[in-house]
Amino acid sequence: MQIRGVGGRGYPVAVSDRAGPRERLGRAAPKPVRDAVRTAGRAVGRVTAGSRTLPTFLLIGAQRGGTTTLYHYLLQHPQVLGAADKEVHFFDLRYAEGLDRYRAAFPTQSSARRVQRAYGAAAIGEATPYYLFHPAVPARVAADLPDVRLIAVLRDPVARAWSHYQHEVELGWEELSFEEALEREPTRTEGEAERVMADPLVTSFEHQHHTYVARGRYVEQLERWWAALPPERLLLVRSEDLHRDPAPTFDAICRHLGIERWQPDAWRAYNASKPAGVLPETAARLRETFAPWNRRLAEATGRDWDWDAGP
Fold this sequence. Notes:
This protein is α/β, with parallel strands linked by helices and 311 residues long. The protein has helices at residues 21-28, 31-47, 67-76, 90-93, 99-103, 109-119, 130-133, 137-144, 157-171, 178-189, 192-198, 205-209, 218-228, 239-244, 246-257, 280-301; strands spanning 2-6, 12-15, 57-61, 80-82, 123-127, 149-154, 234-238.
């Protein structure tokens, strides 16, 4: 990738070889072919794990908050290298496989050195939204990546819960109505956080997929991260700002990662959803549920997240 000048706001604009003919062909290939290529790539990564990097940053969530959009922006930056898959799921679902398994997902050290020589610094990362919510992940990250930089994109918890529900329905993993799913969440997920915390071999489908309300209680998740790593390592991004006014938000993200101020050729949302469709009375009940958690978040971060009135 080479810088070719500056854009309309004075930002460097990059020419990327990551969206060339080979990548477009890969996107057009049938899913079994893509899966086979991905499996082969992982096998090569495991064999060459000793020559590969570990990440310098993690996008840790929140799910359905804009993590995919942010990760696409970052991958276009000339100083950023990404994992073979956006969501590696090492610290949440695959931790028992060991750090070499994780290292295998990332670029080689020689690739990182090439970027460093060309641009002065390289940022290497992945984006797994379940990391923010999984109770065992902060301590694992602190042990294995003590210098890592973290970014969490937080969205209005009512809109996030509805988007999460729609996503599970589309995947075929939710058959209840939204209202029924909200009512049954406490019984569905009872004891599941304790189970995944106690044993790195344990995973929980209910904890990962049916926690529509629990994932919106952001402050209790952030407190685990603040206790495990220096709070200044974790940058909090308001999802609505990322979508409505992306340039200054992305500037702050670049500063946090220690890379140059930059912007893509165009800002566009990836994997986006809209909150339309939730019943007004359900949204009102959720706003009441989340209000005290939003107040705690505002007190803990010293900023007003401006969610209580809705979108």
